[in-house]
Amino acid sequence: MFNRLRDTLSDFVQQADLVLLGLCCGSTLFGMVLIASATNYLGSGSMIRYVGVQGAAMLIGLVAYIFLSMVDVELLVKHWRIILAVSVVFILLLRTPLGVTRNGNRAWLEIPHIPFSIQPAEVVKITFIILLSKQFEWIKEQRRELKSLGSVAMPAAHLLFMVGLIYVVSSDMGSALVYVFIFVCVALVAGIAWRWFLLGGAGMTAGVLALYFMNKLPSHMSDRFHVLFDHSFDPQGVGWQQTRGLLALGSGGWFGQGLFNGTQTQAGRGSLPERHTDFIFAMIGEELGFFGCLLVILLLTAIILRCLWVARQASSDYARLVCVGMAGMLIFQTVENIGMCLFVMPVIGLTLPFFSYGGSSIVTLYAAMGIVSGVKKRGLTKWKR
């Protein structure tokens, strides 16, 4: 057994994407330092607990990365019915006593004896990408082109089903929007005709605007859009988080005030909100300044470009779409989170990949990158493999 484990690890080191793994680990370790600073005001006990949970999640994520690097995703997707059923049941668990409501969203599961909560919508993003990519490949095999209404209807129905399920069960519109962007990225690379993007985008925009002007959107949702165009709107309420975040981000200058020295970051609870999760980028701006923010952006950009590079080297169209979907997931969360802190995007509760605190987020990200690593491994020619 020892020899088998040794051989498996040897194969992993020789064939897996260690560059991608190094970027992920470097980002997470950097993020753990930032989390330590962001939670320092709570006391050393709380700080150690947050960093410890993030470290434990990273270790679990590393195991997931290694395991999924060994798994052929093209063989895995043959069990698509089981994958879909498990995904749906996992989300529906939010309506059981295990489901927990935070900030108006019933989006987390708290399981006894597990030190961190689990967000099903985070985990299911991976299965959504796997199934959606296979769907597009199957349609292309059947129809050869993705221009007709029939070729678009099936994946669009898949998207609407997942988005509707997540929103109805958890009211988590932020996570639902990630699914929409993933769909757009995968569909674009799959070759869907541009007219369907234009029609879909126009329809969604018209629908949202109609609901907004008819006052049919939930008040908290419409207020979050309203405050983007009028920063003076309710600065003590709906605009509080972004106002404080922008103030912290701008006060760091070029080099910041120093780790564990940020004026708002190290102040009490009434200062910078969610500084270790949603608004960690604002905390980075305050304590590490422009160059600290630039380093974080460069690390995330490198991870995204690596995913796209693996997609380009993939041995099949299906594997290529999977990697593009993973990259799309990272792109949307990165742009939305940073835009949220810059007061140009609405607050929808999305964390900064690899840097924000969140056990299920870290494990999911490493699992997703493990799948990309597996695609890279199988993109090698047979004699190299």
Element layout with pairings:
Elements: H1 2-15, H2 18-38, H3 44-70, H4 73-76, H5 80-92, E1 99-102, E2 105-109, H6 120-143, H7 149-170, H8 173-190, H9 194-213, H10 219-229, H11 240-250, H12 280-313, H13 317-341, H14 359-378
Antiparallel strand pairs: 1-2
> Low-confidence segments, ≥5 residues, pLDDT <50?
none
Beta strands, count:
2
Percentage of residues in DSSP E strands:
under 5%
Distance between the termini: 23 Å
| Total domain units | 1
Secondary-structure element order, as H and E? HHHHHEEHHHHHHHHH
Tell me the helix content: 55-70%
Largest sheet: 2 strands, antiparallel
Find the structural class using helix and strand composition: mainly alpha
Radius of gyration: 21 Å
What is the topology, as strand order, of the major beta sheet? 1-2
- Total count of helical runs of at least 4 residues: 14
Assign an overall shape.
Answer: globular
Mean pLDDT: 87
